[in-house]
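sry for the spam today, last one i promise. C-alpha cells for design, 238 residues
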C-alpha cells in the first residue's frame, strides 16, 4: 500500500486528524511517510494548511499541497472565483506517484467528500484514486446520519471499482449516545468494509508527543496500529 487516498463522508468529520494518526502510526512502525493535500481551500497564503497540521501532529513527514485557494469552498468553485488555475486529478496522481518513489507510504488527503469537484470537467478525488490504483480510506462521523453518507460513499467507490480499504470514525465522543453506540456495529455493515479505527474527540488538541504515542492505539492492524475493532464494538454495545 504505497499510496493511500483519504477522504471523508463530508466536511468536519476528522479527516485531517485521522490522516495525522495514520502518518504517526506508520512512522512509529519505521516507515517513511509523505502527505499530499490535493487542494487546500479557505486558507490565506501565510496560514498553515492541513498538510502542515498533519506534520505538526505526526512528526517528520514530507508535507505538501498542490493548490491553495482563499475561500472555504469546493476546490473547483474556489479556483474559479479566485481566477486561479484549478488542480486536476491527473496532477494529484502524478505528484503522489513521484512521492511514492521516495517514501514507503504516501497519504493523499482530499477536500471534503469523495465527489467534491476539483475542476470544471468534474474531476474528483475518486478519479485520482483510479489513476493511482490506490485504496481509499473513508473517515466518517460517529453519530446520527453517518450511516447514509457512509453507505453512499461506499456505493460510489464500488461503482467505480475502487479499492475500499475501510472506515475510520474521525471523532468518537467522550459520552457516546445511543446512535453512536449502534453505529459501531452498523457502519461496517452498511459500508461492507471493515472498521479500521476510532479517534477520540479532541485528539487533534493533544500535544504532538502525546498524539504520536497514542495514535497506534486508535487504528487497526491494516493501518499499522493495535486497535481492536471487535473489542471496541463489545465495549460500546448498547
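last one done:
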Amino acid at each position: 500500500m504505497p499510496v493511500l487516498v483519504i477522504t471523508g463522508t463530508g466536511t468536519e468529520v476528522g479527516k485531517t486528524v485521522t490522516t495525522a494518526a495514520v502518518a504517526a502510526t506508520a512512522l512509529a512502525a519505521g516507515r517513511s511517510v509523505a502527505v499530499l493535500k490535493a487542494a487546500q481551500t479557505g486558507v490565506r497564503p501565510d496560514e498553515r494548511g492541513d498538510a502542515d497540521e498533519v506534520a505538526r501532529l505526526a512528526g517528520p513527514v514530507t508535507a505538501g499541497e498542490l493548490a491553495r485557494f482563499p475561500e472555504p469552498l469546493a476546490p473547483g468553485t474556489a479556483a474559479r472565483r479566485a481566477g486561479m488555475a484549478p488542480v486536476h486529478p491527473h496532477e494529484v496522481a502524478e505528484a503522489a506517484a513521484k512521492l511514492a518513489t521516495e517514501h514507503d507510504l504516501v497519504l493523499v488527503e482530499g477536500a471534503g467528500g469523495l465527489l467534491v469537484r476539483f475542476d470544471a470537467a468534474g474531476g474528483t478525488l475518486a478519479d485520482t484514486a483510479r489513476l493511482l490504483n490506490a485504496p481509499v480510506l473513508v473517515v466518517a462521523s460517529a453519530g446520527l446520519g453517518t450511516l447514509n453518507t457512509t453507505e453512499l460513499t461506499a456505493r460510489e467507490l464500488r461503482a467505480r471499482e475502487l479499492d475500499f480499504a475501510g472506515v475510520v470514525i474521525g471523532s468518537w465522543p467522550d459520552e457516546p449516545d445511543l446512535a453512536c453506540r449502534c453505529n459501531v456495529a452498523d457502519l461496517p455493515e452498511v459500508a461492507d468494509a471493515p472498521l479500521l479505527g476510532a479517534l477520540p474527540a479532541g485528539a487533534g488538541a493533544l500535544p504532538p508527543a502525546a498524539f504520536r504515542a497514542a495514535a497506534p492505539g486508535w487504528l487497526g492492524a491494516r493501518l499499522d496500529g493495535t486497535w481492536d475493532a471487535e473489542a471496541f464494538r463489545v465495549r460500546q454495545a448498547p
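The chain has a mean pLDDT of 96. ok im logging off now
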